[in-house]
């Protein structure tokens, strides 16, 4: 699970990108944070799918 601080930072960078734009350093940070978020998301989603049982 991603920490609240990291999620807040992702949201802050997204809002800043829309309003005033990001520096190259901020773009790199945003890319790294998004990749980390997607990795955690995929892991959790896979766990959910593995828990599904089909019944007739």
From TrEMBL:
Under the heading InterPro entries, the entry gives: DUF896
Q: Gene3D superfamilies in the record, alphabetically? A: Helix hairpin bin
Q: Does the keyword RNA-binding apply?
A: no
> Which superkingdom?
Bacteria
Q: Which Pfam families match?
A: DUF896
The main location is cytoplasm
Q: Name one GO cellular component term.
A: cytoplasm
Q: Does the keyword Metal-binding apply?
A: no
The compartments listed are:
Cytoplasm
* Keywords from the named record: Cytoplasm
The entry sums up its family as follows: Belongs to the UPF0291 family.
Q: What protein is this chain from?
A: UPF0291 protein SAMN02745912_01159
